[in-house]
Structures are given as structure tokens and as C-alpha cells.
Amino acid sequence: MIERRLQAEVNRHIHSFPVVALSGPRQCGKSTLAKMIISHNPESWIYLDLERPSDLRKLDDPELFFKSTGSKQVCIDEVQLRPELFPVLRSIVDEKWCNGQILLLGSASPELLRQGSETLAGRISFLELTPFTVSEISEWENYKDQLLKGGFPRSLLSDDDLSFLWRENFLKTYVERDLISLGFQLSSMQVIRLLKMCAHSQGQLFNTSKISESLGVSRATVNRWIDILQQTFMLRRLEPFESNIKKRLIKSPKLYIRDCGILHGLLEIRSFQNLLGHPVLGNSWEGYAIENILSENRKWQGSFYRTSQGAEIDLILSTGLRHIALEFKVSLAPKVSRGFWTALDDIKPESAWVIIPEGEKYPLRENVWVISLDDFLKLDILAV
Fold it and tell me: Is there a contact between 314 and 255 (Cβ–Cβ < 8 Å)?
């Protein structure tokens, strides 16, 4: 069993809030993590999985159900299937008025869950669980497996062929069932086409007009679909860096398929050797590294910097007035462009790092370092 980094934080929030909502993509390990927490004191918990008809029926009269639970804690899995529960939960938690009453698990973003949980303001805490990150697997696995297969447990822990099959089935279920269960009426064929277009342009500037023309829909429709794919953890939209620098900045966002295994499934890349020879390799590494860094450092905001004159930095981490610049190179002997140095002169970050797959840390210039992703994630500079 791989210990999740978020487990201690979930326990801390359970002791600090009446309701804790743990969101994340389907199959990322939310139920497993919840059951690990429950296993330490199973007699005090009741677990409901709303995808099980018998458990769903127990909430036909939610007030009666919660009165019958007495002092027991309740974990509700796939809570997005019953958004009408949230108003009822307010009176329930207020009546008991103690922390750790309810743990909610949902396969929708905190933003989506918040739309249904406004009545629980001040009573609920939101946490997001991602698929496995580098820090969670580095003790037993090398980065090549995760870079190819992604971080979803069933994908990562299977051999190449079964992993690829699992990701094919995951995508099919996602577009044919999950999106519909969340209330999104989208054409499954159109969604797959859109996802494949995003995969082929991984880490590139998002061109709404080009995509809308290819799909035969309006720009507004494309933007709405992209929002839905973000809210269901499939896509990450990286916004351009905002500053008062007097430069002509690129204003379009960049899009990434969040899980690199799903990216490679969409591109039909079945082995690490296939990936090494594929044009997406550099952008795949970039997206993989960005996802790990932002998932493990949620107090930092991520953006990218690009000017019309060619100055560019892949990722800028910002918190308050602090800025850290990151460039991603899949090479073990990386060379950075002139645009990178120009961008550093523009932004003047407190430090800059070139992130590579493996190798020893060494300096390129004063305050500019080459470092492996695993070692970068362990740096004290990211502590806030």
C-alpha cells in the first residue's frame, strides 16, 4: 500500500471542520484513502457509496438517515450524484455542532462542489487528491514508468499493455458516463475529438478559433467544453504571467492534459521507447513536471511567461511578491535558449531552475540551477 501525502492533512481537517470534502478525478484513490482513514477506527464510521443502489436508497430521506446514525461519522462517496444533499447537511451539522461529522468524496472539482455547498459556508473544508505524484512513488518506482503510464493507481501498477487498456477504458467511461452523471450533456465523439486535439497540442497556446472550426461549433461552445474538462480534472489551463512589465505579452493560455498517461493513451503511445521517438516527448515532460509541482505546492500560483519578441519561461511559481522561474528539459545535458535569459532579465525572479528527469544538481549561472524533478520537489524554498 502506497501512503498518500494528503492523508495527514485530511485527518487534520477532519479534526478541524464539521464537513470535509475530498475531490479528485475518478479512480485516483479517494475511496482507498478514505477507507484507510476509516480503518483506524471502523466502529465509529458509516460508509456510503452512492454508485451502489442500496446505499443511494438510504438517502431517500436524508434527515431520517442522519438521525439514525447517532454519534457516528459518515463518509459519502461520489456525493456529486446527490447535490441536493448539501442544504440538508447544514441543519444536521448545526444540530450536532462538532468537528469530523461528515467526509464527502466527489469526482468533481472543488469549484463544482462549492456550487452545491454554499449553505455549508464556514462548516466545510475542501481538499483535492490527485493521481500519484513523484514524491509518493519515488521510493519504489522510477520516473520512466510514471511518465509513460501516468499517476492513476491501476494504470501505474499494471504492465504496459494492461495499463494502456485501462486508460482506454477510463476515457470511454469518462466521456460516456461520468460527464453525463455530472449533468453535462456532451457528445462523446466530440469530446474525444477535442481531447485528441488538446493532446496533439500539449503545452501549446490555446487557439479557440482553430479548434471551433475543426469541431464545427462556436468559440463559446469550445470554451464551455474546456471549462467542463477542467472542472472534471482532465485539463489544466495555465494562464500567462500577469505583471506591469512593459513588454508585449502573449495573452492566450496554454493547455495540458493533466495526466501524462491519459495524454499518451490519446496519442496511442504504448511504450517508453515509442515515447522517446515521439514529437510530444518534450511537452509531455513539461506537463508531467508542472502537474507534479503544482499538485504538491498548492500555495503557489502557476503561470507562464512569453513575449512576442520570443522571451519565454515555461512556469513561474508565485506567492505574494515571490517568483521562482522554471524551465523544463527532457535532456540530461540541457541547453536553454536566449529567450530564457531575456525572460529572467524581465521578471527578475528570486531563483531560476532548469528541471530535468534525473542527475546531479549543478549551477548554470549565479542563482540559476539545473536539478532533477525529484530533488526540486524536496527543496526548502517551496515551503511557505
Answer: no
- Distant-in-sequence, close-in-space partners of 294: CB < 8 Å, separation ≥ 6: 236, 300, 302
User: pLDDT tens digits, residue range 95-104?
Assistant: 888 999 999 9
Give the pairing of strands 254-257 and 235-238: antiparallel
Sheet holding 73-77, edge to edge: 45-49, 73-77, 102-106, 19-23, 124-128
- Say what the pLDDT of residue 242 is: 80
- Asked if pLDDT for residue 183 goes beyond 80, the answer is no
Contacts of 225 (CB under 8 A, 6+ apart): 186, 190, 191, 194
Q: Is 97 helix (H, G, I), strand (E, B) or coil?
A: coil
Expressed in percent and rounded to 5, the helix, strand and coil fractions of the chain are 45, 20, 35
Q: In what order do the strands lie in the sheet with 362-365?
A: 301-306, 312-319, 322-328, 351-356, 368-372, 362-365
Global pTM?
A: 0.92
Query: Could you tell me which of 252, 155, 271 has the C-alpha nearest to residue 207?
Result: 252
Task: Return the H-helix or E-strand segment holding 84.
Answer: none
Mean pLDDT score of the chain: 91
